[in-house]
Amino acid sequence: MVQTARFARFALGHFPTALEPMDNLTAHLRSRHPHVPRLWVKRDDCTGLATGGNKTRKLEFLVGEAIRQQADVLITQGATQSNHARQTAAAAARAGMECKLLLEQRQVRDEEYEFSGNVLLDDLLGAEIAERLPAGTDMQDRMEQLADTLRAQGKRPYVIPGGGSNPVGAVGYVECAVELESSPVAVDWVVHGTGSAGTQAGLVAGLQAMRSPTRVLGVSVRQEEQAQIDSVFGLAERTAKLIGADGAVGREHVLVDDRWVGGGYGVPTQEMIDAIRLVASLEGILLDPVYSGKGFAGLLGTIADGRFAASENVVFLHTGGSAGLFGYRGAFARS
Q1: Claim to verify: residue 117 and residue 259 sit in the same structural domain
Q2: Has this prediction a pTM greater than 0.70?
Q3: CA within 13 Å, CB half, 207
Q4: Confidence of residue 2 (pLDDT cuts 50, 70, 90)
Q5: How confident is the model at residue 335, as a pLDDT?
Q6: What is the dihedral sign for C-alpha 331, 229, 208, 310?
């Protein structure tokens, strides 16, 4: 079994998260498609940190490292409605640190998008939005510039990459892989929305380190297939090395479907809207418009393609983010 106990860690979440059957949805789909697998949901939307989400797993290890380095300020970046920014703000509050956020305006929407949802929660959690920057800005460079400014003021900043997606953060999803492998359910597939790559990379690294037969399908929410495979594979390799499983991950282990990106990151699609309405109405579960909504649209499309066998157990990893729905109210307005 993979061991992660040697890594610095700061407790933030409720783990292990539940693995629940989606019986209503399975029955609904089986009435329409001949080969529908048994569907489950891994409830990483219920990690317990400021409405939960997948970044909590990553932040336990990232904040643990920040504390080990005696940092007093967390800096991170994301899109305007970033779930990662909101969870980092909450983690900083729990750890007694300041939090500085840089938000990239990747799309122009309305006042609700700019100030409600996750942005409102960032403020309530005590974070400072240090800058709102135009799309295409080198966000990592701007974070480093801010860190230099804070060091000159006598602060000790710790810079967290977008999505918490580096090998330290990805260890959180190595742990999720251990949870899945320890489950009484024989998991054949894990499907989720993949963006900054840390979640998929950690899952792949952890599962391959354990020589698990479980396959991971990432539904891209931001870029085309080969570019996303490159991102995930590179990070999965580095994560495997960090946990002592160097060489365990091959490029063939990284599976990505880019058919559901639509107009780009955070841009609504009809398939996303339909998936969110379907899961909410049948299972009482709220997906989000950026990651899990498009991820679930990809799962539904893959089922329609006949890629899964009816005998298989397919787990949808719910990465959270339902607070972002409030920034997309217009997209869900009924005509």
Answers
A1: no
A2: yes
A3: 24
A4: confident
A5: 62
A6: positive
d(CA 100, CA 144): 12
Strand-pairing partners, residue 191, are: 217, 316
Examine the domain organization and report whether 185 and 119 are in the same domain. no
Determine the residue type at 28: H
Structure tokens at 51: 């409405």
123: domain CATH number is: 3.40.50.1100
Q: Give dist(CA 177, CA 89) in Å, integer.
A: 26
Q: What percent of the chain shows pLDDT beyond 70?
A: 99
What is the spatial distance between Cα 30 and Cα 24, in angstroms, rounded to a whole number?
Answer: 10
- Exposed (0-12), middle (13-18) or buried (19+): which is 289, by Cβ within 10 Å? buried
Q: Which residues contact 113 (CB under 8 A, 6 or more apart)?
A: 80, 81, 107, 327, 328
Reported confidence tier of residue 1, pLDDT bands at 50, 70, 90? low
Residue 65, CA atoms < 13 Å, CB-side half-sphere: 18
Which stretches does DSSP call E strand in the chain? 19-21, 38-42, 73-79, 98-105, 128-134, 157-159, 189-194, 215-220, 255-257, 313-317
Q: Which domain holds residue 139?
A: 55-164
Positions marked catalytic: 82
